[in-house]
Amino acid sequence: xxxxxxxxxxxxxxIGSFTALALLEADYKVVIIDNLYNSSPEVINRIELICGxxxxxxxxxVTDEKKLDEVFEKHPDIDNVIHFAALKAVGESGEVPLExxxxxxxxxxxxxxxxQRHNVTNIVFSSSATVYGDATRFENMIxxxxxxxLGPTNPYGNTKFGVETMITxxxxxxxxxxxxxxxxxxxxxxxxxxxxxxxGSHPSGIMGEDPQGVPYNLLPLLAQVAVGKRxxxxxxxxxxxxKDGTAIRDYIHILDLARGHTVALNxxxxxxxxxxxxxxxxxxxxxxxxxxxxxxxxxxxxxxYEVVGRRAGDVLNLTANAxxxxxxxxxxxxxxxxxxxxxxxxxTENNPQxxxxxxxxxxxxxxxx
Length: 369
Ligand SMILES: NC(=O)c1ccc[n+]([C@@H]2O[C@H](COP(=O)([O-])OP(=O)(O)OC[C@H]3O[C@@H](n4cnc5c(N)ncnc54)[C@H](O)[C@@H]3O)[C@@H](O)[C@H]2O)c1
Ligand SMILES: O=c1ccn([C@@H]2O[C@H](COP(=O)(O)OP(=O)(O)O[C@H]3O[C@H](CO)[C@H](O)[C@H](O)[C@H]3O)[C@@H](O)[C@H]2O)c(=O)[nH]1
What we know:
Elements: E1 4-9, H1 14-25, E2 28-34, H2 42-51, E3 56-59, H3 65-74, E4 80-83, H4 90-93, H5 97-117, E5 122-128, H6 155-180, E6 189-195, E7 197-199, H7 218-226, E8 233-236, E9 248-249, E10 251-253, H8 254-271, E11 275-280, E12 286-287, H9 288-299, E13 305-308, E14 317-318, H10 323-329, H11 337-350, H12 361-368
Parallel strand pairs: 1-2, 1-4, 2-3, 4-5, 5-6, 6-11, 7-10, 8-13, 9-14
Antiparallel strand pairs: 9-12
Helix pairs in contact: 1-2, 1-8, 3-5, 5-6, 7-9, 9-11
Bound molecules: nicotinamide-adenine-dinucleotide (NAD) and galactose-uridine-5'-diphosphate.
């Protein structure tokens, strides 16, 4: 039995593919669009290997409004969108901000307009903890609650803040217009999911993060050090006001994060909250050094690093207060940092070339059983 249909933009990417898997496991029909800028279509096969169901994949750029219209016309049953497609590197966004505004902001505008034309009224948006900026500028805002004033410190964060605002204005307007016309205003809803730092892979070892160019995030970079693709990790600053001088992030297992999307979507459909923001994090902060140690423990040897200067746009501490998601959505991160590191290492060891190589036979055999 299909419980609903979801268009997943950026669905061959890291978080999108795990969410597509979680949606299929929760009996949603899933249509993925992606332009493969930072992903591989092979992940569709891996999703099928794991859950026995295959999402439909359509190559489509989210800034191509005509193509978006065609997708909605081909699938008139789609009644929800989860919007991942974006550029996501904090550092790079300071170098090519216009590209970040084009893909992240203009792409979201195209999507909302196309959804409006096709009467698709629920959206779950991939926002980010980056929208809070430096929460240590306030007293008592670490761990960060959703009520913390927003103030991104880099162009990437500004695009996420801008899209959150655009979605909020749009959904509120749609609700107001529907009410005036005596129509059902409650069908217009948005979840703004502010993720902290996703980590890890599928425990099977056949599905994980596979960035196409040079990765920017800490864990994929550490994974490259572990398999010898990179000599050492560069630690961006050891002069932060943390216990060991390195910056603090809240690393959340990718399976917990993916599950957060299905529960948020279910909540939109059952409670019709209008626009609501939820933090998805564990509530536990780890420094860069703690992450190097945790991943080194999973690998079984100490990974080399060198301290360099701070990265522009970085902040000291992004740790979530996830109480709202816990009380309202009934969602809580269940897996540990150790789980994330072990799963990441299993994926990396088995797939040093990412999705460009066949999964090991023993996995295929086991999954067939
Ligand atoms: N990974 C993180 O640390 C993190 C944290 C918070 C929020 N986010 C947000 O979550 C979302 C997914 O991130 P991810 O880590 O899975 O990144 P990802 O790069 O793995 O996935 C993004 C996907 O979007 C696709 N894409 C990019 N531009 C596109 C375009 N113009 N048209 C269609 N598809 C396009 C890419 O090919 C990729 O498959 C992004 O919106 C990101 O900003 C990520
Ligand atoms: O080579 C590296 C890469 C990262 N870091 C440090 O590791 C921490 C995590 O950095 P990431 O680049 O992995 O993640 P960010 O927190 O900068 O950003 C990520 O998580 C955010 C949410 O917290 C955003 O949404 C964003 O999309 C996503 O890239 C930071 O302190 C960073 O300075 C290093 O020391 N060396």
